[in-house]
Structures are given as C-alpha cells and as structure tokens.
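Handout for the seminar on molecular recognition.
Each group receives one record of this type.
Step one: identify the two inputs.
Step two: read the structure output and locate the region that could contact pyridoxal-5'-phosphate.
Step three: write two sentences on what you found, then compare them with the reference statements printed after the record.
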Amino acid sequence: MLYRSTRGQITDSTAAAAIAAGLASDGGLFVPDAFPPLPADAVETLSPMRYDGRAAYVMAPFLGGFDAGELAAFTRAAYCPGGFDGDGAAPVRRLADGDFFLELWHGPTCAFKDMALQIMPRFLTSAMEKTGDTRDVCVLVATSGDTGKAALEGFRDVPRTRIMVFYPRDGVSAVQRLQMTAQEGGNVNVAAVEGNFDDAQTGVKRIFADAGFRERLASRGVFLSSANSINWGRLLPQIVYYVSAYCDLVSGGHIRRGEYVNFCVPTGNFGNILAGYYAKKMGLPIGKLICASNRNDVLTQFINTGVYDRNREFFPTISPSMDILVSSNLERLLYELSGCDGRAVSGYMDALARDGVYAVGERARELVADGFACGSCGDGDARRVIADTFERYGYLLDPHTAVAYGVLTRYRERTGDTAPTVVVSTASPYKFCGSVLEALGHTVSADGPELIDALAEATGIPAPAPIAALKGASERFSRSVPRGDMLRAVEEFCG
Ligand SMILES: *Cc1c(COP(=O)(O)O)cnc(C)c1O
C-alpha cells in the first residue's frame, strides 16, 4: 500500500517514508491510497485474540515493508501488561441500563494518547532504518497536557531518539504537571513555557521553521520530528480499538454480528474520531460517529453548516484536551469528502490560513451529515453528567468523557436513535482530580497531588497505579523558560 498527500503533490510514498517524514513535503498529511476491507470473518478471527493480536491483524495491510514478526513484536511490547494494566488494553464497560464505555486509559499515562504513543516510537525508529536514515531523531512536543506525558513515556530510552516537551506553565492540571516533571529516562527533557498553550505551540513551530537551526542539527547527525497526530504512525493504531470494541460487543452477546453501532467521541484535533471513520470505511458496521465538543464547538458548527470558522473566541474549559480551534486531522476528512481532490483540500487550507474560514460544497455537506452527528456540552453540563453518572451507576467519568456522554444523551432525545452506542472514554478521572471533585460537590482549595487521595476517599474508587505513584515522586525538570528561550533550550538538549 502506498501513501499520498492530502494536498495532491505526493502520490507514492511507502508506509515507512510516510511515518519517518510525519508531514508530506507539500504541507499535506499522508493518507493511504486505499482502505483494505476487513475480511468477512474478521470478527470471528479477532474475538478470541488479545488486543496485541487484534492490533497486528488490523494494521498489517497498511504497513507494507514491515514484516509480520516485527509487527507482532511491536504490538506485544506496546499493549501487554507492563505498560497497560492487566485488564486488557481497551476494555468495554457496560453500565446497568446499557450504555457502553470504551476505556482507552489503561496505559502508563492514563490517557488515550497511550494507545498510539506506546507503539508509534517503534514504528518511527523502524521506519528510520527502512529508509536508510542514519541520523538520530529529536522529537519536539508542545502539549496542553496529555500528549506530552504520553510521548515522554513512549519515547523514554528508545535508542536513536531524544524527546523534549514544552507545556504551558499555568495551563495544565497539577497531576498532569507532575506526570511530566517527574518523568524518568535518559533521553527526555521537559520545560514549562511562560505563556499559554498557543505560545508553546507557536514556539515549537518556529523552531521547526528555523532552517539554520535544522542545518546545525543535521551537521551533528540529528533531525527534528513531532509526535502529534498529524503523523500516520499515530493515527493508524487508533483504528484498532474501534474494531476491538465491536468484537467485544459481539462476543459479549450485546449485539449480533453485522449490527450497526454508534460511537460517541470527545473530540479536539479530530484524530480519534477520524480513526473511527476509517474503521467504517474498512467495513466495520458503524452507524453514526457522534462528534462531541465542549464550549469550543467549531466542529459542531462545521458539521451542522459546512462552514469552518476559527475566527471566534477561545474558551478554557475543564476538558482542556478539547480546547482547540484548528483541528488538524479534519484535513484528512476533507480529502475524503472532496473525492480525493488534493487541489480542493489545498484551497480550503489556504483559505483557513488566509481568512481563518472556509466552506465546503453541498455534496460534502451531505456526506458529513450521512456519517456524523454532533453536539456540544459546556462545563456546567459536564459537571452534572459526572455527578449523575456517579450517583446512578457508581461509575466515574473524566471531564472529556463527560462531555461525550452529555452530547449522547441530547442526541438521543433529539433523534430518537436507539442504536447501541459506545462512548469513547479518553482519560482516567484521576488526571483531573480537582475538576472531578468539584463536580461531585466538594470544595477544592488547591490543585495538587494531595487531591488524588481526596478523590479516592470521596468515591471509593482507587487511583490507577501510575497516578498513585506520583504522590511520592520528585520533580526532575523544574525549569521554566521565557518564550524567547525555547530554541536555546532545545539546542542545549539536542546539540
Ligand atoms: C487528546 C484528547 C482528546 C481529543 O482527541 P483528538 O484525537 O485530538 O480529537 C479528548 N480527550 C482527551 C482526554 C485527550 O487527551
């Protein structure tokens, strides 16, 4: 299978080249040139398998050039107990009256980013070997919280890699900060940026665009790469859990094979839900993909009207990983909607860069309406969802998953759709102890790791081991840099 760019200039990249490059040279994102249909007996074949076997099966057709043994070794190392807790990598839970939650936070950092970032570094270093690149890679990450820690954990002590993460000094929860600043490993570095997430992101983009710096690095045998979800190596592993959840519903006797299932996804950068769309293209019986936004509902507007308009106020919310105005992976959906027309996609992206807004045509709008539903849920409603769900079922949601559950409830009231629906659960509530405690009616004075015990006491639900371990952790990386000093920090670390 070959990969093309969404902007149309690149048409014949190998999987290894696409993963090693990250971004296509015409500025587009890599997409596969076909979606291999799942074999008719896929559900029977996969149901008895562990998650790592399912992952190798689903990903293999996309990874020409990676042999079966290599893939099996990667998925085993990524998804087996050790990294993921003993409960299976992506278990489906069912509440008493029938709602399903696909829990994607049993990995080492307790957020769904682990599903991709536990395996993506293996793809990347293998791709570097396959493409004959002898340089080392320095991975730069600007994070609003979850990606940074998951990337650190994924790249920790991986040969030929170094990783440096920048987080906004005042923009992450206490647990998220300590997860990053206490990171272990010989090839990692973390710094706070004096500013917000946009400042950190802009700083990292500026470093990528600094040709002189890249040349200096190249002369020392190092190239820069990114770990965010524009890389195909991060998106591909996310297709797996949609297929895996479907198999679990069938083998649990909850649905018949072939029956349609909806997925409701808390969405930010559009990577998670796009992987669901790809699973559907491969033939998985998915009805609606329900795109859930918080108050930053730019995607809801797009799905409802066909107009994407980033010229709007930005609201910090209690679901910070969804506080995004430009969802990069939407570009891949636009490519599908436009009938694989790279010129059309380039037009939209140019308009977005120039005016902050673009509108798709009638046909694309119909295709969106056919595959997707959407809705948004503000902080107040999300808090009520957390409290209600805990009261009724003793099941504790993080604020992102609560947004999705709130949107699903409204969607059902509005449409009367009674299809079985899986809510994609993206983080452990323990990553957001302060917000969750407040939602449950507790007064929270300071946001610190001592809230971990407070949440356990209030709910009787134990903290996941990696978060419980933070209580005694000491900071390794306490450095805070002004925006203007980010380049120097990277240079010291990578040079
Ligand atoms: C990253 C993240 C999201 C958003 O996922 P996208 O793939 O960016 O749409 C939702 N919830 C949590 C907890 C996240 O970390």
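Reference statements: DSSP finds 22 helices and 15 strands in the chain. The longest strand covers residues 161-168.
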